[in-house]
Design goal:
There is one protein chain. This protein is an all-alpha fold. It has helices at residues 15-41, 55-71, 77-94, 98-113, 120-134, 139-142. It has one domain. It has 6 helices and no strands. Helix 2 packs antiparallel against helix 3 (77-94), helix 2 (55-71) packs across helix 4 (98-113) and helix 4 packs antiparallel against helix 5 (120-134). The longest helix is centred in the N-terminal third of the chain and has 27 residues, at 15-41. It starts with 14 loop residues before the first helix and ends with a helix. The relative contact order is 0.12.
C-alpha cells in the first residue's frame, strides 16, 4: 500500500527471513570478492580495481541473442544490427574500456555458471581476455571502446 506521502508500506518480515536474506547477500559479496581477487591475480583486473557491475554479461548475451535471432531468421539484419548497437551503447555508458567490460563479463558469467570452481567457465574467458588484450590484430587494440 502506498501512503499519501508516496511511501510504500509493507508488513514487517519475520526476523528469520531478514537474517536469511542478509546471509545470502554476505555469501554473494564473498563470492564477488574472491572472483575479483582471482581476476587481479590473473591480470584481468588491475590492482586496487573492482568490477562496478556485471551488466557486461547481460549485454554480451543480448548481442549474441540478436545474432542468433538473425541466423535463425527470427529477425532482419537491420533489427539485429540495431540490437547490437544498443548493447554497445549501453556498454559504453557502463564501462570505460575493453578491459573493464571484460572483467565485468567474466565475473557475470562466473556468478551465473562457475560456482567458484575457477574451471572452464572462468579459464576460457581469461584466455580469451588475454588474447584480445595482446594480439596486434585484436579489435580491442584497434577499435576504441567509446
Amino acid at each position: 500500500m502506498v501512503t499519501e506521502d508516496g511511501v510504500t508500506r509493507t508488513d514487517p518480515r519475520p526476523e528469520s527471513e531478514v537474517e536469511a536474506q542478509v546471509e545470502g547477500v554476505q555469501r554473494l559479496i564473498g563470492r564477488i570478492t574472491r572472483y575479483e581477487a582471482r581476476l587481479r591475480a590473473d591480470g584481468v583486473l588491475d590492482e586496487n580495481k573492482y568490477v562496478t557491475s556485471v551488466d557486461a554479461w547481460d549485454l554480451g548475451r543480448a548481442s549474441k541473442m540478436a545474432r542468433w535471432g538473425l541466423g535463425a531468421r527470427f529477425g532482419t539484419l537491420n533489427e539485429a544490427e540495431s540490437a547490437v548497437i544498443q548493447a554497445g551503447q549501453a556498454a559504453a555508458r557502463s564501462y570505460k574500456s575493453w578491459q573493464d567490460f571484460s572483467a565485468a563479463y567474466i565475473l557475470g558469467r562466473c556468478l551465473h555458471f562457475d560456482d567458484e570452481e575457477f574451471g572452464d567457465w572462468y579459464q576460457d574467458m581469461v584466455d580469451a581476455h588475454r588474447i584480445l588484450m595482446t594480439e596486434p590484430g585484436s579489435p580491442w587494440l584497434n577499435i576504441p571502446f567509446r
